[in-house]
Structure of Fumarylacetoacetate hydrolase family protein:
Amino acid sequence: MNDMTSINQTTYVIEPAAVPTLAVAGTKALFPVHRIYCVGRNFADHAIEMGHDPNKEPPFFFQKNPDTIVPAGTDFPYPGESNDVHHEVELVVALKNGGDNIPLDKALDCVYGYAVGLDMTRRDLQAEAKKAGRPWETGKAFEASAPCGPLHPVSEVGHPTEGAIWAKVNGKVRQTGDLNQMIWKVPEMISYLSRLFTLKPGDLIFAGTPAGVGAIVRGDEMVAHVDGVDEVTFKVV
C-alpha cells in the first residue's frame, strides 16, 4: 500500500448503512434517496374525513426516514405496537436538484420524476400523539412505512396535474380522487418546502392522499394507482 492510498482510505468504526434507493422504471439505474418529506391534508375530502377544515392554509410537512422505503416487489410487514394501520395512496415527487427559497416558476426544474407510493400510518399511535400534542414519528416514520413503486422520469410522464389516484384493498376500491383536487400543487409544495429546508438531489415528496383511508390486516393485497404514472401492488404480511 503506498502513502497516497493510506491517506485516502476511510476507516469507519461500524459498517456504514447502505444508501436507500428506488428503481428507475425500464432501466437498471437506481435513484438514491436522501430524505422523505410528506405533506399533510393536501386533499380537501381527506382533511374533512380527518376532522379538519379543508380551506387552504399554509402546507405542513412531516418526515419519514429514507430507509423506510419498501420497493415494489417487496411485501409490507405489518408493524408491531399497533392494531390500526392505514393505507394512504400518494403521488411521489423525486427531486434531481434543490436549494433554498426556490422560486415558484423554477420549482418543476428540480423534478426528476414521479412514482406511486403509500404513506402507511399507525393511526392509533398517530391519534395518541395528536391528542397529547406530540410529534407523529411513531405513527408515521416506523420501519417499512413508505412502500413505493419505481420512478418514471419527467421525460416519459411529464408533470401530472390531473388524473385518477386510487387505492384498492383485496380488489375493492377504498380511496379515489383526482390529482387536480390537490390543494397545494407540486410547484407550490417544492417552493414552500425549500423555505423550511435545504432541498437536495434525492429528496422525495409524498404529495398527499385523497379520502377513503382505512385499515389493513395481514393477508391483504394493496394496489396503488395514479393515472399516467404507475400501478403497484403490495401484500401485507
In short: The chain has a mean pLDDT of 93. Residues 113 and 153 are 4 Å apart (CA to CA).
